[in-house]
Amino acid sequence: MCTTCGCSDHNNVTMTHLPGRLARDAQDGPLHFRKISPVGDAVTVVPTHSHGEHTHLHFNKDAGTIRLEAEILSKNDGLAKQNRDWLQAQNILALNLVSSPGSGKTTLLERSIRDLEDEMNLSVIEGDQQTLLDAERIQATGCNVVQLNTGAGCHLEADMLARGLEKLNPAPHSVVMIENVGNLVCPALFDLGEYAKVAILSVTEGEDKPLKYPHMFRAASLMVLNKVDLLPYVNFDVQRCREYAKQVNPDIEVITVSATTGEGLQGWYDWIRTAIDSRPFKGSQSRTSQELHS
Amino acid sequence: MHELGITRNIVEIVNAETAGAPVCRIKLAIGELTAVVPEALRFCFDTVCQGTVLENAKLEIEHIEGRARCEICGSEYQMPITGSRCHCGSREHRLLAGEELKIVEVELH
Fold first, then answer.
1. Residues 6 or more apart from B35 whose CB is under 8 A from it?
2. Rounded mean pLDDT of A89-116?
3. For A133-168, what is each residue's pLDDT tens digit?
4. Is the four-CA dihedral A20, A21, A26, A28 of positive or negative sign?
5. Is the Cβ of B72 closer than 8 Å to some Cβ of chain A?
6. What's the pLDDT at A35?
7. Which band of pLDDT confidence, cut at 50, 70 and 90, is reported for residue A255?
8. Interatomic CA distance for residues B10 and B12, integer angstroms
9. Are strands A196-202 and A222-226 parallel, antiparallel or unpaired?
């Protein structure tokens, strides 16, 4: 286990499926996902490793220095590509919601599901270190949801999403919201295969967060500034926050909302509708790629 | 914060690429625009590499600064993670460097 932050690898990742009454049009399951053995309602996800997959040398063993130029995240990125390809083939819009804990991601999802249930087919993958609390809140809306518990892990990775999608079994032409583990650092680095990362920031956190945690706001396509109903009670400069976010990522879009009162939510819903209308989805492999600046 | 997993990936890749041959030196390239902290990676390295092909290997990390080219005037300028704009005032840019996260080379015993 990492003594810096306590995160670990995936040895203790568990998954729980809470089917919702709104689940519809389920199909036979994603194409590339391997079957895993359920143990009751929860399954333990066994991490896969490629040790020993290579049995041949790529070079002369006595060669001294060997040029590798190997991408360190190639395994995750390869799995993310598989996810993205599958999601595109199914015409499913997947959004990766990232934020610090307590920004209101789950409340935003609950409200969005209720407001949009007649318009679009939404399902949810919840990421938390422990508990089914968020999945139960989502299930209470009637929505199909899978909870991924990462144990001590501080972010979701592409293989976890693959297993989550297999269990969730989202319908073609639907929308999958992925609520990442509350953490404003690590999820920025890991592509899951989503269409876009959406950073949720609340006005109680301070307007300087885009500068303090720039990786996340650089990786996100959209910043949803939540809890604006609390602006009269906190010292938060919306315009300055917007400028900080644009400084880190000139392409980022900003929407201000209150998931509690409903203020501004039409802007968020319109953003989702625009994303749906942009099919076929191109995906955005970490918004840090050069194409986004081209 | 995720450098432990990153370090495990490094061991996995090197082990596969060298078919288990022990390594005495490894060189990484880490761009400043990636969310990877070289100090944290060094912190994990010795522990993670114990009992692997990288045990006792010397770790070299090449830090690569962020560089961008202005889409308006074509100038190149430094791009820190907190963002920057060109001297012409534009923020429109194409990134040239800073997102590297790779194993450059290894040296075998």
1. A185, A186, A188, A189, A215, B2
2. 96
3. 999 999 999 999 999 999 888 899 999 999 999 999
4. positive
5. no
6. 35
7. very high
8. 5
9. parallel
**Smallest Cβ distance to B1: which of A67, A154, A293?**
A154
Q: What is the DSSP letter of A276?
A: H
Q: CB distance A250–B92 less than 8 Å? A: yes
Reduced to 3 states, what is the DSSP secondary structure of residue A85?
A: helix
Region of A260 on the Ramachandran plot (φ > 0 left; ψ -120 to 50 alpha; else beta)? alpha
Residues of chain B contacting A8 with CB distance shorter than 8 Å:
4
Predicted confidence (pLDDT) at residue B94 exceeds the cutoff of 70? yes
Where do we find the tokens 């809470």? A18
Give residue A128's identity as a one-letter amino acid code: D
Cβ atoms within 10 Å, residue A287: 21
Answer whether B108 sits within 8 Å of A64, measured CB to CB: yes
| Cβ-contact A93, A275 below 8 angstroms | yes
